[in-house]
Design brief:
Blueprint: E1 8-17, E2 20-29, E3 32-38, E4 41-48, H1 53-63, E5 73-80, E6 85-91, H2 95-101, E7 106-108, H3 120-123, E8 136-137, H4 138-148, H5 153-158, E9 162-168, E10 173-179, H6 182-196, E11 203-207, H7 213-221, E12 226-229, H8 235-244, E13 247-253, E14 256-261, E15 266-267
Parallel strand pairs: 3-6, 4-7, 8-15, 11-12, 12-13
Antiparallel strand pairs: 1-2, 3-4, 5-6, 9-10, 9-11, 13-14
Helix pairs in contact: 1-6, 6-7, 7-8
Length: 276
């Protein structure tokens, strides 16, 4: 049986409200096993929303350090198998040889972006420093929070997926991607930005999730200097962001947010008025 590749489907439910029940229907997101393979070998299997899969392939390859640019991926083929979907990539040299020398396997359910790695050193791998980066207005961040709602069609339909979006410092939303997994949403966004050649130092990423260490690692790998999220960061995520030079603004609501690391990138209505 081939996997279902739609992003969502309607299911029948029994809805209870105020002590009474009736037959109803609800849209729920689809979830599929997606294998990322390089030169014929499986590198990772993730449970993901089966949409924007080429973006996912490119973004995962970048944020996990498999390649340094999309140009190092010669071909991408999306293949539907009985058990799921394969993203078959062919790498250019010398990347193919380098990957074979440091092969690792991952098994990634949606709640855990680090499952299956082989050592503690891999879990806390060094991340690039993201010194510099655009200063962003407090009001731009609040505007992004309000504007993101319009860019989440799958969430409006199902109320069950995460989103990752990139905003320029001038308040323009460049791209948004959705997935049942927050790490997958970020990988898909990374792929979209790389494909379009978007300069990631010119803005920030907004996510509808908490900030875990793997999100900081992935954002740093693509040169993002500011990560904004609706929920709180973990203590380890803050420490890694501090070391990488990344700004974390989290617990973001319509009326404000909290800055947990490198606060100087967030400015007030006038340049130089830091938000405290």
């Amino acid at each position: 049986m081939k996997p279902v590749v739609e992003s969502s489907r309607i299911v029948e439910t029994v809805c209870w409200r105020r002590g009474e029940h009736a037959a109803a229907g609800r849209a729920v997101p689809e979830e599929a096993a997606v294998a990322l393979t390089y030169d014929g070998s499986t590198h990772a299997v993730m449970m993901a929303t089966p949409a924007d899969l080429e973006d996912f392939a490119i973004g995962f390859s970048l944020t996990e350090g498999v390649v340094g640019s999309p140009a190092e991926i010669e071909t991408i083929e999306v293949v539907e198998e009985d058990a799921g979907i394969e993203l078959r990539m062919r790498l250019a040299e010398p990347g193919a040889t380098a990957l074979a020398a440091r092969r690792r396997f991952l098994a990634g359910p949606v709640g855990c972006g680090l499952c299956g790695i082989e050592s503690l050193n891999e879990a806390l791998r060094p991340v690039p420093t993201v010194d510099g980066g655009a200063a962003v207005s407090y009001h731009t961040i609040l505007g992004a929070l309000a504007g993101l709602r319009g860019g989440q069609p799958l969430h409006r339909e199902t109320h069950a997926v995460h989103a990752a979006a990139f905003w320029r410092r001038d308040g323009e939303m460049v791209a948004v991607r959705e997935d049942v997994g927050r790490h997958n949403a970020l990988d898909k966004l990374a792929g979209a930005l790389a494909t379009e050649g978007v300069p990631t130092a010119d803005g920030f990423i907004l996510m509808t999730s908490r900030v875990s260490v793997e999100l900081v690692q992935k954002a740093a790998m693509i040169g993002v200097s500011m990560l904004v999220a609706v929920s709180a960061p973990t203590a380890l995520a803050i420490r890694i962001a501090e070391a990488a030079g990344m700004t974390i603004a989290a617990v973001a609501r319509d009326d404000g947010f909290e800055v947990f690391s490198h606060p100087d990138r967030v400015i007030g209505a006038k340049v130089g008025d830091a938000v405290r």
